[in-house]
Amino acid sequence: MRGFSCRMNIAAVLNGLLVSVLAAVLWKYAKLREHAYSVEEELLLTQQSQELSQVRIDYHAALQSLQEEGTRMVCTGKMHTDRVCRFDYLCYSNEAEEFVFFHSNSSVMLPNLGSRRFQPALLDLSSVEDHNTQYFNFLELPAAALKFMPKPVFVPDVTLILNRFNPDNLMHIFHDDLLPIYYTMLQYPDLDQDARLVFMEGWNEGLHFDLYRLMSNKQPLLKEQLKNFGKLLCFTKSYVGLSKMTTWYQYGFVQPQGAKANILVSSMEIRQFTRFLMEKLNVSMEESSSGDEYIVVFSRTINRLILNEAELILALTQEFQMKTVTVSLDDHSFADIVQIISRASMLVSMHGAQLVTSVFLPRGALVVEIFPYAVNPDHYTPYKTLASLPGIDLQYVAWQNTNEENTMAFPDRPWDQGGIAHLEKAEQEHIMKSKEVPQHLCCRNPEWLFRIYQDTKVDIPSLIDAIRQTVKTKPNLKKAKPGIIVHPGKVRDPKCQASVQGTNEARLTVSWQIPWNLKYLKVREVKYEVWIQEQGENTYMPYILPHQNYTFSENIKPFTTYLVWIRCFFNKTLLGPFADVLVCRT
After folding, report:
1. In what pathway does it function (predicted)?
2. Which of 123, 329, 391, 518 has its CA 20 to 30 A from that of 62?
3. Could you tell me if 236 and 159 are in contact, meaning their C-beta atoms sit under 8 angstroms apart?
């Protein structure tokens, strides 16, 4: 019995050992499979990241950094309307269609606005100021939540995240998108030509997507395309928002449209941008010779037509003894249009987005903008404002059709092409009888749409007369390089000296030295502005003086304290800063 029992125990032990070994092998196999799956998933996610970019990324290091350090944000600008933010590891959930800020003990959020971040937003994604469809914000989660979420795909490129405002309209493309993108990228050195643009507004590519491609060596990404790369995308380094410093026009969302109240851009910035774009388009920047002057008529082919365009072209040729050519978006590539306009002496066009191409005109050229019947040129001035920017050196003429017989309206078209058939009869009759579209807000005013989509037969003698009031012979292109706009510095060593001549008479002598930078400049006209204010009074006496020493006696009282400010200005408009106030007692 004992021998049998012993044999049974040995068998049980061997069986147990076999089970243990098998369990260990299976456990090891399971762990190897789990590791293989993890490696396979990491390789796939790394591959997806590299599909977004040629930049190689250490996926494990990026994930560890996100988990341990979270998202970091530092913004410039005090208000949401002038703020651009830089992020490390800002993520986007395609499932929620929301950006996500992951918090850890190492996260940074400057400014830390708390709930003020929602009043109304952290920043504007577009350069169109304070438009409620362009606001940016993010959701917040602890970094620990990453354990329960889809594994992130990392975007290794430096990205600029923004909204395009209207990518089917050239004016919006240039004014709201391309110029702000260009100067936002110049502000931040790592937003170079290898940065990637990410458009989050939800539009498709639009009619002129090739223009956006010029801004970077990388293919821009649309919001819809982000879904192809995973449920959770994390941008390793990104900038969000656009600079608004180059915009000059507001579209009437709060008040009727017009020039911005505080325009900060000049010809210098516009011309630098157009040179960049022409280089990207492989457009020659050589100036035309003096015998090659010509006029360009920008032809529209679908709506807002010039009904007697052929007659107009012939009349311009005869009147100005210059060749006249036509361009259109349908018949020419954009590069060809830029090439032609960049050497033109005059650009003639109906009011419309195509007139933004006047940024490519040479200095001294003339812009002629034609307005349909009942559309007051003074109420719609994006291109007049452009032609008036400091140093741009463009001439501008607006002409309006004032003869109702020379207009062709289309009341039966769809509403967004000027149709009014959907309106009540009384409103239709009111619009048809109106002689001028009243000022209005953007964007669906039916009277404005009805009138702006009219075709026009141009009164050619009237148009020629309007041009002649600005140009007596031919537009005079300026071959010389544009002057640099330089402001004077502070006047130096300001002094005052008082003398009392009697109980009711005193004199105040004020002197100063020229600004330091003036001795290095050639300036046509230098003058000085002096303000004198009796201490305790609210008013002051201003004086414009040609020299640096002057004695004042009029309205100067004995035994009185005066405050004196002095500044220099060049060529009537280039003002310098005031020097420190002088306190002078007679």
Report:
1. Protein modification; protein glycosylation
2. 123
3. no
